[in-house]
Every structure is written in C-alpha cells, then in structure tokens.
Amino acid sequence: MGAARRRKPKILRREGIRAARATFPLTQNHVNPARISKLKRLGLVVAGGTGSWAFGADSAQVHSIANIFKPLSAPAEAVYEISLLALLVCAGIFLVVGSLLAYAVVKFRSRPGDEGTEPPQIYGSNQLEMAWTAIPILIVFVLVLVTARTTADVQNHPLPEDSLKVRVVGHQWWWEIHYPDHGVITANELHIPVSSRDQRRPTALRLESADVIHSFWVPQLAGKTDLIPNRANDMWVEPYQTGTFLGNCAEYCGTQHAKMLLRVVVETPEEFARWIASQKAPVVQDSSAQAGRDLFFNTSCVNCHRISGTAAEGVFGPDLTRLMSRSTLAAGAASNTPENLRLWVQNPHTIKPGCLMPDMQLNPAEVEKIVAYLLTLK
C-alpha cells in the first residue's frame, strides 16, 4: 500500500475525535441524554454536573481513585486502549482453557465400574500440539507489535514549541519540581494547565533521580516512567479535565517508598498563571515571626532547605519558599495543617519513620517559634 493510504497514529486519530466533539452543543438540553451518559462514563463530562464539558471543571476536585480505566489525558488513553486489548485476549484464553477443562472433567469423569481399569493410552494429536504452540506465539507476536506501536506513538508524538517544560527529580522520599522557564521550584505538587478543545497545552516532563531508581506514575494521566540515576527520561501529559490527580512512586526505592506520593494539580490557564505569579512573588517578611526566622537560620535547617531570597540555599531537602501553599507535608504523608507541621518539625519520624530528615532535638518553645515562621511561607 502507498504512503497515502497509511493509517494515522492512534494519538492523532484521538485528537481528530476530540476535535469532532467540539462541534457538539455544550448543554444537556441540546445533546441526546444517552450520549451525555456515555460521555460521563468516559470521564469527558463532570460527574454530577449539568452537562457542561469537563474542560471547565472545578480545579478543586480531587480524583481520589487513581483508575487506569478512566483515562483523562492523551497518553493515558493509549495505555487504556492497549490494556483493553490485553485483557480481552486473556479473557478469551481463560474461556477457552476453562471450557476445555470443564469438558474434560465431565466427559472423562470416573464412572461406576471403572475401578481397577486403566484409561486407553493414546499418543496424542500432532495437530493439537501444533495449534497450542502456534496460537500462543501468534498472540504474543500481535501483543508485542501493538505495544511497540503504542509506545512509539506516545514517545514520538510532537509537542508544540510553547509546551510547558517541567523538570522532576526523585529523592528518597519526595519529589523536587522545577519550572525552568519560570524560575519556580517547588516540591511534591505538580501544577500544570489543562488542555482545551481550542488549544493544546501539553506538559513535557524531564525525569531525573538524585539517588536510586524511582518511577513517576499518575495513572489517569500517563503510564509509568522510571527515574534513573545519571540518566534523564522524558514523558508528557495532556490532561483535558481540571482537578487534583493522585500518583506515587511505582518502583520500590527504600523504607518510605509507600509514602512517596505525588499530587498533580490541573488548572485552567488563568489559574495556572496566577499560581506561577504567586510562586515568583518576593517572600514577605512577617515581623511577628522574627524569632522563629532567626532560629531557623541559626540551625542546620539551612543546610538542607532552600528559601528564595534568603541565605537558605540547601538542596538536600524540599524547597520551603511557598511551603504553606501546598496541600500536604512529607510528600503526601500528612495534610499540611499547623498541627501536622508542628509534629513534623518536632520529630519527622512520627509521620514518616525512616525518613532522611533528622530529629533536631528542639525543645517545645523552639518548635513553636520555627512553626510560626514556617506558617508565614505562603
């Protein structure tokens, strides 16, 4: 066949489908209710909404169930489709093998009068042996080809020049996140803009590791990608629904691997621009917390943590410049509340046993002063 008849890659076909969806009316009054129901099941309409498209969903929504069968990003759709194929093939094999087993159990079961007799001894069937050798090989061959094509579609998919670029560094046991084009550094919470029907806004991720092998996985946004020491791996996400998506490290990386959690906050372009502006704003010095600030800078805290615009330039621990703008502490191990922050400063191992942040042996008064200062980092 000529090149003109070659099929488009799956991701490009999906973009064409999403472009076609743009011609649909935006309210339930103008759309077949059955179609709305189907779109809700596919995750394209806000659950419980009035039929408005998910591109305008509330960014405060937390997608608490990380379900690969409800993809909400272009790369995740590719993973979803290939997983359906593999599951269908396995289901077919299960039905065939189970049916043959049930037939053999019923057909050749022991009957009265069989005691002491031996079943007829036969050689077998060359045709059957050839079949159950050739068919599995063919199935594996097809799955390998489909997987290779899907992987190539995702990895080689061209991104716009103005795509958001983010550098993610895995540590034991937290995530360091850089926005090099904006001069912003944060930790454990990745903020990105949502794509719309009119304009693509994918996010290109450069993944690195500072110590051991980690794995970046947000099931509803993309497949897993490893973070390997002395190597940079690339991936991209393009969510088309706002909200907070939960992920985690998917490669065992030590004691607190289970609490190396990740939150991806997908926002409208306007919300994302405001977030970037707030992260870049100068740190406001609160005179009421001066005692805690002085204590913070006179202890070993500054050797590990960084606070923009100050002498604290540590690189071993998370950047604390906008600590109180985050939802969680200790890479998702606890909610970011004053009570949990106090407990974390007093003894980090009560929240995350085995973590690499030492217990500074602070007395209660010192803990209160440092917490008061940290609460001003908004």
CATH architecture of the largest domain: Sandwich
The average pLDDT value, as a whole number, equals 81
Percent strand? 15-25%
**CATH fold group of the largest domain:** Immunoglobulin-like
Structural summary, described in words:
The chain is α+β, with helices and mostly antiparallel strands and 378 residues long. It folds into three domains: 15-52, no CATH class; 64-106 and 128-264, Cupredoxins -  blue copper proteins (Immunoglobulin-like, Sandwich); 287-374, Sandwich (Immunoglobulin-like), CATH 2.60.40.420. Helix content is 34%, strand content 16%. The protein has nine helices and 13 strands. Strands 1, 5, 7, 8, 10 and 11 form a six-stranded mixed β-sheet that branches. A five-stranded mixed β-sheet has the order 4-3-2-6-9. Strands 12-13 form a two-stranded antiparallel sheet. Strand 3 and strand 4 form a beta hairpin. Helix 1 (10-21) crosses helix 3 (74-107) and helix 6 packs across helix 9 (364-374). Residues 1-9 and 12-59 have low confidence and may be disordered.
